[in-house]
Amino acid sequence: MDSYFGLKKNGSTVSTEVIAGISSFLATSYIIIVNPSVLSQTGMPFTGVLTATVIVSFFSSVMMGLYARNPILVAPGMGLNAFFTFSVVFGLNVSWQVALGAVFWSGIVFFLLSVFNIRTHIVKAIPRPLRYAVSAGIGLFITMIGLSNAKFIVPNPATLVSLGPITPALLTFVAGLFVTAILVMRNVKGGILLGIFFTTLAAYPIGRLWGVGTDVLISWKGLFAAPDFSLLFQLDLVNSLSWAVLPVIFAFVFTDMFDSLSTFVGIAEAANLLDEQGEPLNIKRSLLTDAVSTTLAGLVGSSPGTAYIESAVGVEAGGRTGLTAVVAGLLFLPFLFLAPLLSIVPGIATAPALVLVGVFMIRPVVKIDWMKLDDAIPCFIAMVLIPFTYSITHGITWGFLSWTILKFASGKKEEISPALLIIDIFIILALVIG
């Protein structure tokens, strides 16, 4: 195991990787319930989407660990499932079978781009300062997700967002955040995972022993749930290739590409998972895994699979090799039958981990030369737009465009690679089509 995953080489151990894998799984496991709740609005059976979600998450994460040997989970992507439901099925008035076909064909395009190493060239086209900014932006994004899940920040029509009301759940989150922070600060092994367990236990009395009248956060909903394979191979491969659906395939390709690329780059920069050239480790194999995941998603009945930013939870817990992803992927598999168990871990229990990961991922921002404005402005735009638009894709695309424009304006055309110009063209096309 050590020789295959390179545990000693990466300064890790089996126990550390297992703890990291469990941590990443707990931070990501919400997708097992959330993905079906979104996609089922199209008429797809909830239990069928849940089964498809588990299959994609299990297979893709294990493949990422064994083949690409990276500690990054792959699962159906948030945002991509909303695009599938509201923009494709409802917006274009096409059936979910046709939408699944579009997912499949976008995966084929991913695969071809990866096989011919085009996606790797795209990664290398991202200027290094923008990589630092993307890492920081993803950190802010993850923090925002955590704060939102805990209702620490809530929508406000007057100020966009504001501090949420003081409730038993919010106080439990705050307690969990400080306990987790202290554990991590003191370098307690598995501190993030212990923090998740602590917050879960602390949430149990809510609605029972205190905060009576509020919702009970932890409740038993049963143990077993039989898998539903009714969505397997229900995609429409023919009608999904019609002219009207081709822009959808392009949108899936574009969105998933930059979500996965920015996740790989951001986590690699934050955790120093880089090769001798300073590029993310095993990037070609990682991108091939992402492509296979999307193709598989179309076949089994889900929105596209993508690399998960919540993998940073496991990376910060010490995960440095593919063993982390393998452990996390294996933990998905039992939930083909045990999905109700996920109700035991509430959102406020993983929220402290997400907030602290933001602290860790913002570290590379100090590597940006903020006095060099033609670097600083595009980096700032990319960094803030990721959380402000709630989209990694928007942050990195506007970062690209602003980098190109400002470098041209400052007479530094040599800092704009041909690959970046090609990316900019596709970005503009996507903005026009969208």
Structural features, described:
- With 434 residues, the protein is mainly alpha-helical.
- The chain contains 19 helices and four strands.
- The model has no long low-confidence stretch (mean pLDDT 86).
- It is found in: Cell membrane.
Write the layout of secondary structure elements.
Elements: H1 2-5, H2 14-28, H3 31-39, H4 46-68, E1 74-76, H5 80-90, H6 96-115, H7 118-125, H8 128-149, E2 153-156, E3 160-163, H9 168-185, H10 191-203, H11 246-271, H12 283-300, E4 305-307, H13 311-316, H14 322-332, H15 335-338, H16 347-361, H17 373-388, H18 392-409, H19 418-433
Antiparallel strand pairs: 1-4, 2-3
Helix pairs in contact: 2-14, 3-4, 4-12, 4-14, 6-11, 6-12, 8-11, 8-16, 8-17, 8-18, 9-10, 9-16, 10-16, 11-18, 11-19, 17-18, 18-19
Give structural attributes.
transmembrane helix; 19 helices; 3% strand; two-stranded antiparallel sheet; 4 strands; 434 residues; two-stranded antiparallel ribbon; 63% helix; mainly alpha; NCS2 family permease; single chain
Rg (CA only): 21 Å
Percentage of residues in helical conformation? 55-70%
Determine the strand fraction and express it as a percent band: under 5%
Structural class by helix and strand composition: mainly alpha
Shape: globular
Quick synopsis:
It is a multi-pass membrane protein. With 434 residues, this protein is mainly α.
